[in-house]
């Protein structure tokens, strides 16, 4: 089946991290479905559903960790699948695809605003914050607190190896927030100056463990040691229903060439370079999860999952399974 180059480009941009950040990845996947529905030349509903399934596979095969990706795909395909099962005609299936994708994007934008408002209530005037990587959810909290007139200062880690911290530093300083950029390994050194840590999430497990940019768990450890509060800002579509079924969240490993260059590898053939992109912070090190459904302790993650996906989780995750098992 032929796809619009735009869909393949979105997939490639996610893979190569031109599109990055769990939220942006999920919204871009939704945009790919809109493009699919608008450009599909399927002659009947079965062809259309085959195409939908293939687009899902293309997107799912880009990056493995951000649960927002399968959750956005599931949000859209589940609705289309339901309509297909009821015998709905092709034109309407296309409309449902587009409406569902737009609804996902709209919900996601609203969620970020609500997270900003709820999270900002936990930030005090004069707080010194620390953040890691470049999370739109964490930035929403910081920006909202600042816009509410709280004079805050933010320490931002560089975030090796791809230096997403520079993006965060630029964004926050451009609106007037006082920013101090530090190297990742300086976090413990500065922890005594920090009041609260706030980071985003790529995935949240049923037990409240958070998967986020590599280094997050070390920051949580340093915060725990110094009795500094550790907040995670995450939309509920980053919660992983599969973890209720016993599955683990896969930690993406990217190319060593993001860490060293080719000549280093050639000159040091006995050196192995590993580049895991995320790590797992256990719930014991997390004070609060700031979601659009409320500010909760990590131990309450299971309730979010039950509310989002219902009590028959096995059935609601099937759309992803269908896609994977077809391989
Ligand atoms: P938002 C990013 O991953 C970072 O780990 C960040 O904390 C997380 O996504 C969430 O970002 P990457 O795509 O969804 O840079 O809050 O590997 O924007």
Question: Topology of this structure?
Answer:
Blueprint: H1 5-15, H2 22-39, H3 45-60, H4 68-85, H5 90-120, E1 128-131, H6 136-147, E2 153-157, H7 165-174, E3 178-182, H8 187-190, E4 196-199, E5 203-204, E6 210-213, H9 216-225, E7 229-233, H10 262-267, E8 278-281, E9 288-291, E10 294-296, H11 301-309, H12 313-316, H13 318-325
Parallel strand pairs: 1-2, 1-4, 2-3, 4-7, 7-9
Antiparallel strand pairs: 5-6, 6-8, 9-10
The structure holds 1,5-di-O-phosphono-alpha-D-ribofuranose (RI2).
Please, could you describe this protein's structure?
α5 packs across α6. The chain starts with a helix and ends with a helix. Helix content is 48%, strand content 12%. With 327 residues, the chain is α/β, with parallel strands linked by helices. It is built from 13 helices and ten strands. It has two domains: 5-113 and 311-324, Up-down Bundle (Four Helix Bundle (Hemerythrin (Met), subunit A)), CATH 1.20.120.420; 118-309, Translation initiation factor eif-2b, domain 2 (Rossmann fold, 3-Layer(aba) Sandwich). A seven-stranded mixed β-sheet has the order 3-2-1-4-7-9-10, sandwiched between helices. β1 (128-131), α6 (136-147) and β2 (153-157) form a beta-alpha-beta unit. 1,5-di-O-phosphono-alpha-D-ribofuranose binds at residues 20-23, 133, 135-137, 164, 199-202, 212-213, 277.
């Amino acid at each position: 089946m032929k796809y619009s180059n735009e869909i393949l480009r979105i997939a490639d941009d996610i893979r190569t991290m031109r599109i990055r950040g769990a939220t942006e990845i999920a919204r871009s996947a939704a945009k790919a479905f809109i493009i699919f529905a608008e450009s599909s030349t399927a002659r009947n509903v079965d062809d259309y559903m085959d195409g939908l399934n293939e687009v899902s596979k293309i997107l799912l095969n880009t990056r493995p960790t951000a649960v927002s990706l399968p959750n956005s795909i599931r949000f859209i395909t589940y609705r289309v699948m339901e309509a297909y099962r009821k015998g709905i005609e092709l034109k309407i299936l296309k409309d449902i695809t587009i409406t569902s994708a737009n609804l996902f994007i709209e919900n996601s934008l609203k969620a970020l605003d609500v997270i900003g408002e709820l999270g900002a209530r936990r930030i005090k005037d004069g707080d010194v914050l620390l953040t890691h990587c470049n999370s739109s959810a964490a930035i929403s909290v910081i920006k909202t607190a600042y816009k509410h007139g709280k004079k805050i200062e933010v320490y931002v880690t560089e975030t090796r190896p791809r230096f997403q911290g520079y993006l965060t530093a630029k964004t926050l300083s451009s609106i007037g927030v006082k920013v101090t950029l530090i190297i990742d390994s300086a976090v413990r050194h500065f922890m005594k100056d920090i009041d609260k840590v706030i980071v985003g999430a790529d995935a949240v497990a049923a037990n409240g463990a958070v998967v986020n940019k590599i280094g997050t768990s070390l920051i949580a450890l340093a915060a725990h040691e110094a009795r500094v509060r550790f907040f995670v800002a995450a939309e509920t579509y980053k919660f992983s229903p599969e973890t209720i079924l016993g599955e683990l969240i896969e930690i993406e490993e990217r190319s060593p060439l993001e860490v060293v260059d080719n000549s280093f590898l050639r000159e040091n053939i006995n050196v192995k370079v590993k580049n895991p992109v995320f790590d797992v912070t256990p719930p014991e090190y997390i004070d609060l999860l700031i979601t659009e459904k409320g500010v909760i302790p990590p131990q309450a993650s299971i309730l979010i999952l039950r509310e989002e996906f219902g009590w028959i989780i096995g059935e609601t995750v099937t759309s992803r399974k269908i896609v994977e098992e077809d391989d």
